[in-house]
């Protein structure tokens, strides 16, 4: 039975004038409110009482009303006496003491609204005492506060150790610390979340439950910084390192990070470091000297770069200048805040942002420059504020200002994907659509001509009204209508034939038009973006299309020398879009336009 049903059953027993004999009061509270000690192992039930008896009315009068307060109840216990009695035979029974019974007391208090919290031991002691006393015999049970969620450390490697380092041969290296910078392995469990533990409910004297305040929870992933993550395992949720590196704890947010970046202040040169082959990220505050190579990922250089930067991914950031060097990033972007001069900048699968570039070869998925002069640039998207004497190729090219520089011409190529395989089908469909449109128009004109004849027009009008029952003919009118129909029989037959032909032609025209639109959409989707925007032309500038097959990756992957020859060489194929010393251009690819194959 449910708890409310059990409470109702016990209430029914007491209110029916019965009480439990030998009542185990803690067992009653355990059964009704789940308060009290748990069952012993192997124990399936608790004995509630020995018997059930009728509550005698004379005994019931012995029990008085308790004094109720907000959270407790008091009862005044004193010695009670039964008055002197004279039996019918004249026998006199003198006054004698009467004792209260705990089982009766519990039943009477229940009927008076106290269903919980009676101190059985205190009540029994007061009942047996000869001294009058007012005691607090029942109290509310306050809810028990739960335990808030917290985290505990599960790895000793989280703490720094400045003890001398012990070598493998047992000797101590006084020049090294045991663990000055805690280094964490990938997949290591760092912290464990102890989930919140809910508190226990309380009960007032009437047996009404009082829920405790819910314990506070925490979100373990809020403590996860770079290189860590919250992960659930069979035995709980842990904060786990996702990479190997050095531990860092943010004092303000308590976020734990694993950093694999190495910070250098001395620069890269033959005297300091030589060439660097790094497994992780690198931050350099000095200069990278000539003929020095730095290989890693997420490379940041705050000084000037005269050597070569090779990144496997992440972001390459140069806060100053790149001079006669190179930057390659295989899977990320390149940002140069200063000037790039006589250098090669390649982001195989990333964007490039440069403040100013001179005499550089630049290749990436997206290139954005403030100023560019005498550069060869290829990318899917190219945005330049001022370009002079450059050779630029891109699928989406936008220049605020463009023009030659001294004797170096300004060339712009809009990369247009070769989609000529759609042109033959589009031409055929356009021809068939036009043919059906012409035939349908001719059928409509002939239909209108025949229908305009007076007898035919009169017959068609009468026939329409007869079909809709707007007109009912007499036998004489019906005979007259048959004469008219006989006179225009050939014309009516021609009208029906033209109507059928026109309906079939319109259906074919619609089907072919829809098919033409689908092929054009397929061509547009295959062609992708191809546009060029020139806001201001300052000097002779030429814009041509450059068809290509596949995607632009192969073209962008050309060696700098071959890329330069491709962009500066004699144009082959394509279409001239603009060639002038002044003006503007806003050209977009027309999906119906057909280009020659390269």
Indicate the topology.
Blueprint: H1 3-15, E1 18-21, H2 25-33, E2 51-54, H3 57-60, E3 67-68, E4 72-77, E5 80-82, E6 85-86, E7 92-93, E8 96-98, H4 102-111, H5 120-128, E9 133-139, E10 150-153, E11 161-166, E12 172-179, E13 183-184, E14 189-194, E15 202-203, E16 209-210, E17 228-233, E18 236-241, E19 245-249, E20 256-259, E21 262-264, E22 276-277, E23 282-284, E24 293-296, E25 299-301, E26 308-311, E27 314-318, E28 322-323, E29 326-329, E30 332-341, E31 344-347, E32 351-358, E33 361-373, E34 376-388, E35 391-403, E36 410-417, H6 423-451, H7 454-467, H8 475-487, H9 489-527, E37 531-534, E38 541-548, H10 553-556, H11 560-568, E39 576-580, E40 585-588
Parallel strand pairs: 21-23, 22-24, 23-25, 24-26, 25-27, 26-29, 27-30, 28-30, 29-31, 30-32, 31-33, 32-33, 33-34, 34-35, 35-36, 35-37, 36-38
Antiparallel strand pairs: 1-2, 3-4, 4-9, 5-8, 6-7, 10-14, 11-12, 13-19, 14-18, 15-16, 17-18, 19-20, 37-40, 38-39
Helix pairs in contact: 6-9, 7-8
